Amino acid sequence: MEQSEIFKAAASETHLDQPAPFYERVKSMIKTNIHSGAWPVNYRVPSESELVSQFGYSRMTINRALRELTAEGLLVRMQGVGTFVAEVRGQSALLEINNIADEIASRGHRHHARVLELTQLHADAQQALAFNLPKGSRLFHSLICHYENGVPVMLEDRLVNALIVPDYLQQDFTRITPNAYLSSIAPIVEGEHIIEAVNVPRSECVYLEIDEHTPCLQVNRRTWTGRQDKKIVTSVRLVYPGSRYRLEGSMRK
């Protein structure tokens, strides 16, 4: 499709005739092109001069739209080179326990999962301590890579208490996430998070399709179930490539 036709199609979808600040109209058009796939990752966005010509708005208006989209993680601006569509960069609430499939869907993107491991094991000393169980207790282990629009955004390395969730290994985790399944079987009453920046082993870099020295964000989480007799149902390590994901949080006093 010619560049002018792309602009026209995006303009019709974003209803540029509706009341809105001019810079918001430009942002809406660009977002429509990105989310529709008309402008894929690394696509070179028209220059400010081209956008001024297309929209008839001031350079200041166009510049504001591009700056805000860059701050939102949708664009990457390279001095002297141009502006490009950024890689998928999701975001997740800092201390909420959310289903990644729902997060991705809420952004209008497609989620799919690849199950790398799904096995039973007997807890070693460290694993037993994490679950407050005797050494040798039966646990289930899953290793799953989650994708957003075909790009790996999270590696989920999870241990599950087999006494609480005996049918864990029988689930198809390409159709339902462990988070969604566990929440339906053993509702969470308490959670613990530890967040740190890490470099991950080469094998995990392969799964995430990143270079070996790419910084990653790691969330270690344990969750409890049961109101009267609380028990640890799962311990999970979530690894996010730093360039593709971010965690957000807020607080009030």
Automatic annotation (TrEMBL):
One of its GO terms (molecular function) is DNA-binding transcription factor activity. Pathway: Amino-acid degradation; L-histidine degradation into L-glutamate [regulation]. SMART domains: HTH_GNTR, UTRA. It comes from the Bacteria. Residues 20-88 form the HTH gntR-type domain. One of its GO terms (biological process) is negative regulation of DNA-templated transcription. InterPro entries: Bact_HTH_transcr_reg, Chorismate_lyase_/UTRA_dom_sf, His_ut_repres, Tscrpt_reg_HTH_GntR, UTRA, WH-like_DNA-bd_sf, WH_DNA-bd_sf. The keyword NAD does not apply. Keywords: DNA-binding, Histidine metabolism, Repressor, Transcription, Transcription regulation. PANTHER family: MANNOSYL-D-GLYCERATE TRANSPORT/METABOLISM SYSTEM REPRESSOR MNGR-RELATED, TRANSCRIPTIONAL REGULATOR PHNF-RELATED. Repressor which binds to the hutP region in the histidine utilization (hut) operon. It blocks the expression of all the hut genes in the absence of inducer. This is Histidine utilization repressor. The lineage of its organism: Bacteria, Pseudomonadati, Pseudomonadota, Gammaproteobacteria, Enterobacterales.
